[in-house]
Amino acid sequence: MLALALFALVCACSVASKTIVITVGGNTTGDGTTTFVPQRVDAKLGDVVLFNFTQGNHTATQSTFNSPCIPAHETDITINGFDSGFRNTTPGTAGTILTVPLLVQNANQTFWFFDFNTCGEGGVGVINSNESSTETLAGFVRNAIRLNGTDTSDTNTNSSSSASPTSSSTSPSTTPSKSAAERNVMLGAVGAIPLFVAGLFI
Question: Average of pLDDT values for 92-114?
Answer without folding.
Answer: 90
